[in-house]
Design brief:
3 strands; 6 helices; 135 residues; three-stranded antiparallel sheet
Length: 135
C-alpha cells in the first residue's frame, strides 16, 4: 500500500511540474498590415494567462508566452479566429472575417496587391518620371 501511495504522489508531482507558467508557442496567422498586427496581438493579450504576443507582418508568425495553467494554445487560437484571422490549421468564420477593416481583407487578392512592396525598378522608374516633370 505504501508503494502505491508513493507512486501516486510521484505521478502527481510530475504532472504538476509539467505545467509551465511561461510556456512558449508559435502559430502561423494570416494578416496583412499593422492594423492586423494590433488586432491579433490584442485578441491574444485579452486571453487570461497570455503574457506576451508578437505577430510578424512579414512571416505571419505569432510568438506567444503564456501560463499553461490558465490557458492553452487552442484557447488562444480560438481568440485569434474570433478576431477574424485564419491560422495555418483553422479558418475564421465568414462572420468573424467580415468584422476586419476593409484594408485588412487578407483573403482578397486586390488588397494583398495593395500591400505588396513596390519593386525596386518600379520605384526608380517612378522617380525618373517625377524628375522629368520637374524640368
Amino acid at each position: 500500500m505504501k508503494k502505491l501511495l508513493v507512486i501516486a504522489l510521484m505521478l502527481t508531482g510530475t504532472l504538476t511540474f509539467a505545467q509551465n507558467k511561461n510556456a512558449k508557442a508559435s502559430i502561423e496567422v494570416d494578416g496583412i498590415c499593422g492594423m492586423c498586427k494590433a488586432r491579433i496581438e490584442k485578441a491574444c493579450l485579452n486571453t487570461k494567462g497570455v503574457k506576451f504576443a508578437d505577430w510578424s507582418i512579414d512571416t505571419h508568425e505569432l510568438k506567444l508566452i503564456f501560463d499553461d495553467r490558465k490557458t492553452s494554445v487552442s484557447t488562444i487560437e480560438k481568440q485569434v479566429l474570433d478576431a477574424g484571422h485564419d491560422t495555418k490549421v483553422l479558418k475564421a468564420t465568414d462572420e468573424a472575417y467580415a468584422t476586419v477593416h476593409p484594408c485588412c481583407k487578407y483573403r482578397d487578392e486586390a488588397v494583398i496587391d495593395d500591400h505588396a512592396p513596390k519593386k525596386e525598378h518600379e520605384h526608380k522608374h517612378e522617380e525618373g518620371e517625377d524628375h522629368d516633370h520637374n524640368h
